[in-house]
Amino acid sequence: MNALKIVLFASSAVSSYAAFLYKLASIRRGWGDIGYVTMMVTLVLQCLTFTMGAVSLSVVTFFGVQNLAILVLHLSAVAYCISAQILLMQWANPLAEVRRAIRAWIIAGVVLCVVLTALFFVGNRPGTPASAFGTGSSNPVILVYLLLFIVSQAVPCVTIYRQCIPYARSTTKPWLRRALRMLAVGAVVLFLYCAARTVNIVSPMFGLSVGPWAIAASLFSALGIVIVSLGLTMPSWGGHVSNLVAWGRNYSSYRALYPLWHSLYESSPGIALEPPSGADRQWSDLHYRLHRRVIEIRDGWRALRPYMDRAEATPPQARDQAVVEATKIKQALLAKHSGVTPALSQDNGSFDDHDAKTFAAEVEWLTQVSAAYGRLS
């Protein structure tokens, strides 16, 4: 079980260092921002916490003091929770409004660290096993120390959760909203860690043994830290994800419009602002190219109006409006190719009058028409 705990601490440390290195790349432009500095301090403390977690399970003495690595682990965990709380307050409020609250959290953290340090050195008698600070002890000083440490972890979990939910509802930034919700989930998971750790600590007092379930605390801790690491960095990388998704959606639409556009271009080459590009150029300026394709489809369709027969009946299978419009375009292209102009042309059907409220809606509509046209062809 000790080996599994080391693996879980190491996985938490890896996610922490990954988040730290990701944010470190922005140090030049972010160093003057107090929010960025707080973020970096939080991530450094997170890295230190879980690095010391792995060290404390494999090192008996640290700087010549038995179990000192456990104290460093706990003190860094306390500082980490307080720093995360301060970061969240800075995300959701102007700094001037939360200065007093930040000062109160820092003072509380310093006092708590002093008390924990004093209890540790009083209770850490020669020969005290490291397990006494992990699974509990009959020594009342160590027991108070552990329970006080658990409270110091549980309280920020509750306050962070209570703040994240209303902040997430009020913010207009989508990725900040997602980050706050993820932090709320992480706070719940870490609170479960606190609950599981409390059970591990107090169960020996009642003659109970949790057995293999003792590992649950480490599992909740590792999972919670991975979630929190994602939540802390999400406002930075979330925009890139949105851009990538939008690019993929635009590229899919650009390709889906090709059958309809190609036929209209062959019929009326003048609709193209510039000659068709090769496949290698389709990857660049995609937003612009998609706009051009929509405009050129509309221009090509208008060029076919003299060949659209208003008197011709719609095929019975064309119940879908996109199929109706695709059928009209197909018939008009055939009429133009044969040089036959219908008696009743200048069709003013719904394709001409289709009123898309947004560009995305227009693309979606034309994509349906293009797909129907491709099936007809």
UniProtKB/TrEMBL annotation:
<feature type="transmembrane region" description="Helical">
    <location>
        <begin position="182"/>
        <end position="201"/>
    </location>
</feature>
<protein>
    <submittedName>
        <fullName>MAB_1171c family putative transporter</fullName>
    </submittedName>
</protein>
<dbReference type="InterPro" id="IPR050039">
    <property type="entry name" value="MAB_1171c-like"/>
</dbReference>
<keyword id="KW-0472">Membrane</keyword>
<dbReference type="Pfam" id="PF20182">
    <property type="entry name" value="DUF6545"/>
</dbReference>
<keyword id="KW-0812">Transmembrane</keyword>
<feature type="transmembrane region" description="Helical">
    <location>
        <begin position="213"/>
        <end position="232"/>
    </location>
</feature>
<feature type="transmembrane region" description="Helical">
    <location>
        <begin position="37"/>
        <end position="62"/>
    </location>
</feature>
<dbReference type="InterPro" id="IPR046675">
    <property type="entry name" value="DUF6545"/>
</dbReference>
<feature type="transmembrane region" description="Helical">
    <location>
        <begin position="68"/>
        <end position="89"/>
    </location>
</feature>
<feature type="transmembrane region" description="Helical">
    <location>
        <begin position="142"/>
        <end position="161"/>
    </location>
</feature>
<keyword id="KW-1133">Transmembrane helix</keyword>
<feature type="transmembrane region" description="Helical">
    <location>
        <begin position="101"/>
        <end position="122"/>
    </location>
</feature>
<feature type="transmembrane region" description="Helical">
    <location>
        <begin position="6"/>
        <end position="25"/>
    </location>
</feature>
<feature type="domain" description="DUF6545">
    <location>
        <begin position="246"/>
        <end position="373"/>
    </location>
</feature>
